[in-house]
Sequence to fold (380 residues):
Amino acid sequence: MADLLPLVLGLVLGLVLGAGGVLLVVRTTRPAPTPSLAAERAAVDAMVRPLQDTLARVSDDLARAERERAAAQAALTEQVRQTALGTDALRDQTGRLVTALRRSEVRGRWGEVTLRRLVESAGMLPHVHFEEQDSTRDDDGELLRPDLVVDLSDGRQVVVDAKVPLSSYLDAAEAADDATTRLLLARHASEVVAHVDRLASKEYWRRYGSPEFVVLFLPAESFLSSALEVRPDLLEHAFARDVVIATPTTLLALLRTVAHTWRQEAATRNVREVQRLARDLHGRLATLGGHLARLGSALDGAVGSYNATVGSLESRVLVTARSMATLGVVDEAAGEDAGLPGPRLVTSSTRPLTAPELLPGAESGLATLATDLPRAGAGA
Fold:
């Protein structure tokens, strides 16, 4: 706005000079007698009045613009002040955080908390799918306490140990020149290698029945990438010692795979239970078939005995009873002799068993079926 002020003043001055020039031309070219002073003043006022109105509007606009500029300047100053305060507070908190992270116990706790959050985000539950700070001893009686032990589906376990090699990494971030940065990053890579070697020497897989590897967890991706810049063979060095270096990204994928294996194992256990129940059911069906066969034989015997009894009744008992009627023992007029109808014979027999599972010797066929069921479950 200060740059526009000379321009506006020059414009106003030009308008005034132009009005004076016009007035001078009018006075010199007028053929009539010279007008009075009042008339000239009125003419000048009439010409200058629009300029005065314009100057007043320009002055108002300049004042309003100056007020807006001052308000904007004050707001900008306040924002700069707040930003400076926030930056100072952030610098102070960052400094305290860096100081805290230089302490080994704080770094260890940070790595453990990050590891636990990753495990929980993979859908695993404590004391069900994993154990924290489980204790064991090596052959020399030295106490070993891995940060995390993840249970696998086949009864085996994976040991995860969190390490935070941060001191040299922080020093490298604060280094003033590239040479010092490279030197400190090389020291950082050496610290990671030292963690790998110490973890491999503990041989957790011999005490936990785990696969022959242990997971070294680094809680930040940059820890591994910075070490790989200086030591490209770091991963191969770890693999040769049965150590898998994992970051939050790779460990999460590993743990999700383990969780999926857990679910698959649960489904497999259910299939095996169904197979066991199916074998029991088929065995009981075979037993029931034997019982039914014996019951049918007993029913056939009962039918034979019934028919023999009916034959004896008709051929011997009823004949004698009818003879008594002819001797007048029974009053025929009273209708007491109704002819003594004899019972009917049972001509139907029991239905034989035809289902192969219920026939004698079905146990051998069921055994073959029970052998085929696990194969079908494995194929599923």
The two ends are 82 Å apart (CA to CA). The chain is about 70% helix and 5% strand.
